[in-house]
Amino acid sequence: MQDASADPRIGSTIENRYLVLSKVANGGMSTVYLAKDLRLNRNIALKILHPHLATDNAFIGRLSREAQSAASLSHPHVVQIHDHGVGPEYAYLVFEFIDGYTLRDVIERQGALTPRQALDLLDPIVAGLAAAHGAGLVHRDVKPENVLISHQGWVKIGDFGLSRAITTSTNTGTLFGTVAYIAPELARGEGGDARSDIYSAGIMLYELLTGHQPFRATVPVAVVMAHVQDEMPAPSADVPALPPVMDELVRYMTEKDPDHRPANGAALLEDLRHIRASLTPAELDAGGSATLPAIEPRLSGTSHTVAFDQSHTTVLAAPQFPTSVLPRSPQLYAEAPHSDRYALAEPSSSAYDAGQSQPAHIGTSSYPPVSDDAPAAPLNKRQAAAANKAKAKAAATPKKTLGSRHPRRRAVLWVLLVLVLGILAAGAGWFLALGPGALATVPDVGNKSVEQALSVLRTEGFESTSTTDVYDEKVAAGFVVDTDPTAGSSLRKFNNVTVQISRGPVLYQVPNVTGVAQDGAKKALTDAQLAVGTLTEAFDEKVAAGVVLKQDPAAGKEFRANTKVNLVISKGPKPIPVPALTGKTQADAQAALKSVGLVAVISPEQVNSRLVPAGSVVAASPDSGTLTAGGKVTLTISKGPKMVSVPDFVGKQVGVATSELEALGFEVKVENLLGGFFGTVRFQDPQGGEAPEGSTVTLRVI
């Protein structure tokens, strides 16, 4: 507690209803006070938002809608929102509060827990999340600090609604939530849903089993990146005694891809209870620090309350409002004839001391005796009509029987007959009113264990029961789905009541579609009551285009209907561009083709080329486009230029010499001596012999 002078709100009354008693904690978004609801005379946790949020009209509007949604959620494992309001200078939320501690306190005090302890704590947390997800609410900040545990063992999850309002009202790009528990999709800014809460719960499960978080770093952004990129470590790496199914459960809850996690809290809750039922006592008690006694959370009922805040939780005192049971009326029927002739005994005041009740017992209360001389009670219309009809019938009945020969014997027979009929009528009355033939209402035993359901039915008088197994998507395996006849039906107690026991959801086996064409794979998955997930493509040198290369999940695993199976489809062999090879030496061309996965084929015939030297590639086929790995390219190799005889043109005119040399494929170079006045070739180089086609012949002209 803090001195009242430290905070001007202490001692003030909010909305003329909430008397602020003391300051509990101060967080990044709000200040939490212990306050008293003057109207209902109970202590509550009053969370007053900081002024920068209280004056944001857009945020206040969203907060109002989210608070209404969260307030509509009533569940034993969710902290209840009682009220919210907006004043000129403040906005506030009113919560129940709990006498206890947080899950963070449990982890810091006890360290690693056994699977039994961890699952016992996680079960009510997930049950609260399941109720929220079913109501369309996503928490987005699931962490041990937001899980509250009373000293009586009740577990509740708090701070619903506020996180959603904050994330929808800010555009700063800041990650909302605790980085140690943030889901990868939230870290990437892609938005989250119920599966984001499942991821955070998976991180909490890892921490419960090992005593520490899976990703730790001095810089928060490093933790965020680990959630996005790094593989989730197995808890058994730190606690080797843990059963393998706990590693699988943590991995399942913390898959990077949300599609591979449980769809929501309800789906996860079924899996948790199935896993817990499948573990042996030795496996349930494996691992753990075992330094303190096990915590025993309660899974249903009401609880005390804990005040909580964004940053931490402070324990407050629990309210004391005992519940009193009102006495029952001893009158059995609302319209019992002559009921006004009996005076009801007043119950003793001592029967309700300390909030206890003493119900009146029908048929055992003391009533004043009814005198034979007492005047008859006035009859209603129905009773008067029946009496008149009886009188008319009696008047029409003869008083004597003519011709009776044995009146005494006949009288005895009539007496015996009346006695037998009376006994039969009494027996039938007992049978139909109080015995096995009495009508009773079939009780609602849904979501109860088989033992509990049969006990409730026997208590209601239904001794003849049978069981049958049914598949159900919502009720966990081993628990009751419904009865036949259904709850609320009127039924004679001797009739049979069939109890329908859940076998859990129907699971379908993933077929093997690897190596199947894409259309065939889709049909196989649809026929198996599954769905096609993400389709990706990849080149493959051996598998033809359009055929499935891989699938995830693998064949043989079992999942619920419409679970998505991701497929990788082959694009066929990867195309390889044919490199440019003309002009390269034969060795270089072969090496270039080999480096890209192609094969060089040398043409047996070589050709002359004026431009490509001998031993180099003159042509390639194909010389462009693409081939697949192992494709062949034919190379034609050059023999170099063709050798041509050079005529002797010395003493001949330069024009004739030039024409003939060019016709033979030579290049001609003319050099004039003394101006080349006569046009006669004086010198020639080369003169005679052979020269390569396309080489230059020099003519000196005078």
UniProtKB/TrEMBL annotation:
SUPFAM superfamilies attached here? Protein kinase-like (PK-like) (SSF56112)
Residue ranges with Low complexity bias: 384-400
Q: Gene3D superfamilies, alphabetically?
A: 3.30.10.20, Phosphorylase Kinase, domain 1, Transferase(Phosphotransferase) domain 1
Enzyme Commission number(s) from the entry: 2.7.11.1
Which portions of the sequence form the region Disordered?
346-403
Arranged from A to Z, the UniProt key words for this protein are:
ATP-binding, Kinase, Membrane, Nucleotide-binding, Serine/threonine-protein kinase, Transferase, Transmembrane, Transmembrane helix
Residues of the Protein kinase domain: 18-277
Catalysed reaction equations from the record: L-seryl-[protein] + ATP = O-phospho-L-seryl-[protein] + ADP + H(+); L-threonyl-[protein] + ATP = O-phospho-L-threonyl-[protein] + ADP + H(+)
UniProt feature, compositional bias: Polar residues: 347-368
> Nucleotide-binding among the record's keywords?
yes
What PANTHER family does the database record attribute to this sequence? Answer: MITOGEN-ACTIVATED PROTEIN KINASE KINASE KINASE 20-RELATED, SERINE_THREONINE-PROTEIN KINASE YBDM-RELATED
State what protein this is by name: non-specific serine/threonine protein kinase
